[in-house]
Amino acid sequence: MATSHLLSIFILALISLSPIGQAKRNTPSEQKQAPFEFIKTLQGCHKGNKTKEIHNLKNYLHQFGYLQYPNRTHANYNDDFDETLESAVKTYQRNYHINPTGTLDAITVSTMTTTRCGVADIINGDNTMQKSGTKKHESGSSGHIHTVSHYSFFPGNLRWPPSRTHLTFGFSPNTPAGAVAPVVRAFQRWDAATHFTFSQAPSGRSADMVIGFHRRNHGDGAPFDGPGGTLAHAFAPTNGRFHYDADERWSIGPVPNAFDLETVALHEIGHLLGLGHSSVEAAIMYPRLSSGRTKGLNADDIQGIRALYNV
Ligand code: ZN
Ligand code: ZN
After folding, report:
1. Looking at the domain assignment, is residue 131 inside a domain?
2. Domain that holds residue 56
3. Active centre residues (catalytic)
């Protein structure tokens, strides 16, 4: 590869990151393990095992809605790989098109450790990723299942009142200046593809939707987890809050080891409008996103909005 090309990528990365990247650069000895990395130590585990870190796997599956013991007692969140945990792992595997063995095989571990949206896949026991229209075909030796399923809504089909087709957005004062343009572009993409129109509220005016950057515990009951793990989250209509995890390294466009602001905005705006997670990997509402990647709106996302608003 030409040196000049590498250099231009480097310069582009510097330009992209200088106003935005908020994560402190730690020396290797100071670097903490990313939030989901512990799952790698559990590869091969299955029902009947007792391994330290299984209580953390239970917390992980609880966080994303897969595990609901009647009581969140210490006894349930122990290190026993029990039947309830096996069932939760199988549900997770089905949602991500993995052969539902209930064992933490390599593909399950690599899927679970991918950075993702902080919004749960199953809300109040409602597994929206496996709703009507799901067809499964065993595909033989690959261990994958081809699942035809699609967009989802929040329980109760929460949405903006049908008369509210124009919505305004604004930014919390802590928003890095470089993050505004990618979020505006994301709203423009949703604007062009749906019956909604969006505009930025004049500063000082209240907006229907507010974007902010927060770290760790920030007062909404859904703490962020530092670099890696969850990247952002947003609330169902008509709450309007959309938070980026300020501890991530953010970028404009695809930059290695950074997350694209616009791609994440497209996903979280989908939540603000009432979409839940989709099991279609190409859909913007698919929960996982790796660093260095960009995505756009997919037919599945547009169909979801049309179905929710009956337009
Ligand atoms: Zn999400
Ligand atoms: Zn938040």
Report:
1. no
2. 37-113
3. 268
pLDDT digit string (tens) for 197-219?
A: 999 999 888 999 999 999 999 99
Angle between helices 54-63 and 83-95 (to 10 degrees): 50
**Using CA atoms, how far apart are residues 151 and 309, in angstroms rounded to an integer?**
13
Greater confidence, 254 or 145? 254
Ligand 1 centroid–CA 177 distance in Å is 24
Query: Which residues fall within 8 angstroms of residue 230, CB to CB, at 6 or more apart?
Result: 35, 115, 116, 117, 118, 224, 245
Q: 102 C-alpha to center of ligand 1: Å?
A: 24
* Closest ligand to Cα 118: 1
The Å distance, Cα 214 to ligand 2 centre, comes to 7
Q: 88-107: per-residue pLDDT in tens?
A: 999 999 999 999 999 999 99
Ligand nearest to the CA of 216: 2
Q: Which of 113, 137, 153 is the last residue of a domain?
A: 113
Whole-prediction pTM: 0.86
